[in-house]
Amino acid sequence: MNLISSLPDALICHILSFLSTKDAALTSVLSKRWRHLLAFVTNLDLDNTIYDRPKMGRKRRRHLPLERGVVDLDLYISSEHEYPLPPQVLISKTLVKLKLAGTDEFIIDVREVSLPKLKTLHMNDVSFADESGAAFGKLVSGCHVLEELVMVKMTWDFCGACSVSNPTLKRLIIYCEYDDENPESVSLDTPSLVYLELTDTVAAKYPKMNLDSLVEASVGIRMTPDQVFRGRDLVNRHYGYKLRKDVSATDFLMGISHVKILYLSSQALEVLTFCCKVIPVFNNLIHLTIETDQDVDWESLPNLLKNCPNLETLVFEGLHYGDTNQCFDDGYRFKDTNECFVTGADRCVCKPWLGTPSWLSSSPVKKLKVLKFGEITNYKDDMDKQLDLINHFVQTMPNLEEVVLYYDTPFDSDLEIVSNGFQQLEKVASTRCKIQVVSDSISFTTTVHSSSSSSTSGLVFFKNTFPLKILDIDSVVFEEEGVGFARLLSGCPVLEELVLTNMGGKTGSFALLTIFLDDFDENPMSVAFDTPSLEYLKYSDNIAREYPKVNFSSLVEAHIGLRLSEDQKYEEEEKEMVGNATNFLLGLCNVKILYLSAKTLEVFTFCCEATPVFNNLIQLTIESNDESGWDSLPALLPNCPNLETLIFKGLVHKSTDGCGNMCLCKPPKNPSCLSSSAVKVLKIILSVDIDDEGMEMEQIMHFLEKMPWLEQLVVYFNISYDSSVFDLSKKLQSIPRIASPKCNIQVISPNLSLSSTLPSTLSKKWSAPPNEEYSWFLKALKNMDDLPDNLLCQILSNLSTKEAAVTSLLSKRWRHLFALVPNLDFESFSSQHTDHTSFIDFVDRVLKLRGEDHVNKFSLKCGDGFEDEDVYPWISNVLRHGVSDLDLHVSSSLVYWLPSKVFVSKTLVRLKMGPEDGPKVKLRNVCLPKLKTLILDSVVFVEGEIGFAKLLSGCPVLEELSLRNLEWGYWGSCSVASKILKRLTLCCAHCDDNPKSVSFDTPNVVYFKYSDNIAQKYPKLNFDSLVEASIDIRMTNDQKANVRFVSNDDEEEREMVGNATELLMGICNVKTLYLSYDTLETLNFCCEAIPAFSNLTHLTIESNQEVGWESLPELLKNCPNLETLVFQGLTHKATTCDDDDVDMVMEIVMINHFLQKMLNLEQLIVYYNTSIEDDLVEVSSQLQMLPAVASSKCKIQVISVSLGLSVTLPISL
Q1: DSSP secondary structure string, 1104-1118?
Q2: How many whole angstroms separate alpha carbon 1098 and alpha carbon 1127?
Q3: F-box domain: which residues (predicted)?
């Protein structure tokens, strides 16, 4: 306690801010120092459930928080007495958000209103002292920057005229409870409104509806119960549909006719029937959702859909409709041929769409979705009625491309029955139509495709397919050889894991592939892998004579066990190539984790023309034995520039002349390849004891003396004698010097559970820690037990949840403390079922122990093997407890649809989600009022640009948006529009198409990173505040092939294949700019003119040997204020050479050219990535021999980051 009391007041108050005010008040009894500290905490949370009214003597102090400049005020008053709102609340100069809630007795007495900073106003179940409506209008007009207004459970139709008028309002939600009376008048004068949600009784008139900016509306207007009864009664008694004269919704519909996304409740559908003279034309409407009900018919739907000429997506929530019992009345809706009752029937079996004018035959709708398909609500519903209706849609709608039925059934046979029913259709209106039946309950989908070749326009269902995800085949022979195996794979469309043992095979679209073939004396003729989605490969076989196709685009981890046949082993003695594995290695070069057997090293040596570059490889495991040499390692390691971890399973290998610079078998002739290695962690697994003169010890010493970046050496010594571990530690301490001073050396014996750690400087002997250290630890632990739980939880919050859980073993006091930490971090990527079970139990236990405590951050990372019923409750739990930072990294097979609750959270400030092939999101309502950071990776928007626009409109304070691997090329228009956004990262997935149109309306963006194919046009680009930009626009593969085919000297034949001029014009105010080599090529062929970058002071150019610099002269000429120019490489198309030495000469020539031409140059810095000091000296000497420089002030510096050296040349050269 003395240690904590020594902290400054500001830090202690920050610690107390994590507690509720009531809990923080308990610390006042600790000492005089703590008595009043709680009063200085910036966040106050007061809950008075004891007294209905405060004492009169304290009444004057109720506005104290307002005097302190409160920004966010949340008041909930529940009292049996009238409790007026303090008038000081309505004249606050600092309030940004105000939330008022309570019972009907919570009264707002509006006298003077001045809320100059208020942006969000929520009112729930409150009343106004003045019931004339003037008080409400005065309140809204006094909020000059109001952007969001929410009114829930409010009787706002207490007066003759109900009106909302505010020029800055962007979001408006009005939810009024059921009422037996209609408002006389409702007006909405909100020209900036983007989102409207209105649930209320239909008004008698709507005199003013100013909704010019409206994008999305959810309409739930309804008639009174008496009006509903009278309207339906007249229809049932065959008097027809009588339009009501006392109410009218026509003006309201006219006001929202510019909307793009519209949701209509079933009650609103009935209002259109009885309370609307004419339905206006919705020219902008592209997405319409209709809620259906078994008591509401579809009389208004024909006119509504006919007046939506640009509608693309139509969604039905259910397929229910009311039976009107007028089928035999020829004067009304249905023909008399449709009998309501048939023999033996006890209900109406009419089909309301038959005998009517075909209101669907001219519909432009391309996508039809049915939610809650198959839902039976009462005796009137059955599956036949719903299937008949879908058949009618498919047979009538000519532009339909996709029908999706969401069928909530736990039985896969139900999906098969429905799918088979659609196969029986004799004709369809659209030959492009595809019908999909989706069941979330069993994660199963069946698809029916229309056949363009069929003269009957019938539907063809792909049979003999099943949802197989794992296939394990051992010693199976296919009679049709490769044909039978290929047929098997083509019938498994969702196969993710394939294991082949003791047989041969080819391709698939799966994620894991294991092939283990018997040792035999023949080599396969040809082996091909066309598996672009494969993530894991385990391949053991004789090397094939050829590998014509190897497609491993998504490969992450590979275990390779290639081997020579017996005949090839004899041929290897002649030192000639006995096969060719080059194509196979090129296919593997994107892998991140690689395991190579000892026999594979032999294949690399004798069967490979050249070793490719493994740019993504970060972990490499090498298996060794005394029959295979290391000849291929000197070429392999330099081609792994980003390798971080190197693992050797044994160090004994065959001594040859080829591995001399990798080890000490033969005297090395060249500099060791280890000296340029980037490896930071070296692990060596030994299974035998090490003698003083053994080669293993010498090899370890060689590694330590040559590897300059090594930070950790771990030797796993599989021995059962503890003395051997200490002996090996002593031998390692005797090494005279090591290349890396940061290297930590550790010797571990798994059998003995011993670990010996040597100091990084190797300057003192290793010894076990003295017993006094353990006693000090126990004493410190006892002192920590005296700290309060809240402070201990704050300390534990610096650990991961898994690490914090270990402290539960310390004592009973610590048993459950880890579960109360506000930041939760769970991670499990294990494939073992037991690990899944224990992980689920662990997460469930932690959340249960927390009870109702607030969650600040929740991070969940888990792979395959979990069920959605495990994960969904976790997400719902933390959302319910006010999580502000949510990080979801889950498999798409687990969370195929992201829970909708995530997008209506009132507390989220940061949201990050999406691994590769991330989840899909379907958005109905989006309300994230506090979200400032949104990071999405590989997330698919089911509704395309509509869903994306809906997401942005629901994030009113979003400041940072990062979208990676976004597939938006198929959207009609790709657009990002936000007035608040400050940082925007948009990296689109590689594809073969160019977006049609891309727009950015982001006037406050400061940082912009953009990677995408060049668009056909950029109609709107608003980057008024842009400071820094990183641009990577590229042409498609076809476009690159076309332009590269044209000769560089034939300028007349070169044609533009796109136009990036508009994009450059949009970012021309930038100060710092990065251009990729793809962008340079795009500027060469896709830009009419390069604009002037008057503000640009820092420019970075990335170079590539396949791209020229044709666009650079005009670009640099148009940067009049450029101060710093950075080249990432100097090799480009005009200077490319196969000889490294010649490349170096050309780069020196290029630097010489810069120095002779740039008059204002003051500093030239050359970063030379070399680990050899002589190379640095040689380059410096060549630069000193330059004949002349254009600038007498220029200072030249050559820096080697690898060596930590810098050579500065004199100004005079």
Answers
A1: -TT---TTHHHHHHT
A2: 11
A3: 1-54, 781-829
What is the C-alpha separation between 200 and 141, in angstroms, rounded? Answer: 22
Rg (the chain; Cα; Å) = 37
> 774: which residues sit within 8 A by CB, 6+ positions away?
none
User: Helix and strand tally (H, E) in the chain?
Assistant: 30, 55
Q: Does residue 970 register a pLDDT over 80?
A: no
729: tokens are 């530690």
Q: Which amino acid is located at 490 in the chain?
A: S
Which of 49-58, 230-239, 438-447, 991-1000 is the least confident region? 49-58
Residue 570 parent element (H or E)? helix 566-571
- pLDDT for 132 beyond 80: no
538 is written with which tokens? Answer: 């385990």
Q: What is the distance, to the nearest Å, from the Cα of residue 147 to the centroid of all Cα atoms in its chain?
A: 28
Segment (H or E) for 917: none
CB 348 within 8 A of CB 325: yes
DSSP bridge partners of 201: 222
Contact 736, 762 (CB under 8 A): no
DSSP 1061-1074: HHHHHHTTT-SEEE
| pLDDT tens per residue, range 672-700 | 678 778 899 999 988 655 544 467 888 88
Query: Taken in order 1103, 1109, 1114, 1116, is the CA torsion positive or negative?
Result: positive
The answer to whether the CB of 362 falls within 8 A of the CB of 339 is: no
- What pLDDT sits at residue 1047? 44
Paired tokens of 437:
């039946």
Residue 521 has pLDDT above 70, yes or no: no
The SS3 call for residue 913 is strand
- 978, 961, 1057, 1054: which is closest to 1023 by C-alpha? 978
Q: Does residue 365 carry a pLDDT above 70?
A: yes
CA-CA-CA-CA torsion sign (1170, 1173, 1176, 1182):
negative
Tell me, what's the pLDDT at 768?
A: 35
Contacts of 993 (CB under 8 A, 6+ apart): 969, 970, 1013, 1036
Going by C-alpha positions, the residue among 244, 241, 240, 298 that lies closest to residue 268 is: 298
Cα gap 461→450, rounded to integer Å: 8
pLDDT score at 241:
65
Instruction: Count other C-beta atoms under 10 Å from residue 577's C-beta.
Output: 15
Contact between 260 and 216 under an 8 Å Cβ cutoff? The reply is yes
Q: Give kind and range of the element (H or E) at residue 985.
A: strand 983-988
Residue 279, burial from CB neighbour count under 10 angstroms (0-12, 13-18, 19+) = buried
Q: How confident is the model at residue 1007 (pLDDT cuts 50, 70, 90)?
A: very high
Nearest to 591 by CA among 633, 563, 547, 553: 553
Distance between the two ends of the chain, CA-based, in angstroms?
66
Per the prediction, the chain carries an average pLDDT of 76
Q: State the residue for tokens 């003119």.
A: 1089
Predicted confidence at residue 930, as pLDDT, reads 92
CB-side neighbour CA atoms (13 Å) of 386: 24
Q: For residues 151 and 1031, what is the distance between their CA atoms, to the nearest angstrom?
A: 44
Task: Answer positive or negative: Cα dihedral of 626, 632, 638, 642.
Answer: negative
Q: Which helix (H) or strand (E) holds 964?
A: strand 960-966
**Three-state secondary structure of 592-656:** CEEEECHHHHHHHHHCCCCCCCCCCCCEEEEECCCCCECCCHHHHHHHCCCCCEEEEECCCCECC
The conformation of residue 897, written as its DSSP 8-state character, comes to B
Strand partners, 344: none
Please provide the DSSP assignment of 671-719 as one string.
--GGGG----EEEEEE-S---TT-HHHHHHHHHHHH-TT--EEEEEE--
The pTM score is 0.41
